[in-house]
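Supplementary Note 2. Why include the ligand at all?

Several targets in our set were suspected to adopt different conformations when bound, so apo predictions alone were not considered sufficient. For every target with a known small-molecule partner we therefore ran a joint prediction. The input for zinc ion is given below.
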Amino acid sequence: MSLVRENLLTQLNYTPYCGNASCVFGMPRTAFNGNQMECRCGWQSQFEPEFIEQYKAAQVELKQNEKAGAV
Ligand SMILES: [Zn+2]
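The joint prediction is reproduced in token form.
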């Protein structure tokens, strides 16, 4: 598993940087749009739907852990 994927599954609210080398915004961190990580320049990640489901489930769990003070 790549480091980015690992971070996505283990760090709360983690998003990777924009993958567009000619990004007009300077390759900032992307935002999750519900399906993929998206940059304001229009770039989107291409994670397979299975991984996105894994990501969503992991983030829910991370959030719950944080609320419970277990982090
Ligand atoms: Zn961008």
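The pocket of zinc ion is lined by residues 18, 20, 23, 25, 27, 39, 41, 43 (CB under 6 Å). The chain has a mean pLDDT of 95. Comparable summaries for the other entries are listed in the accompanying table.
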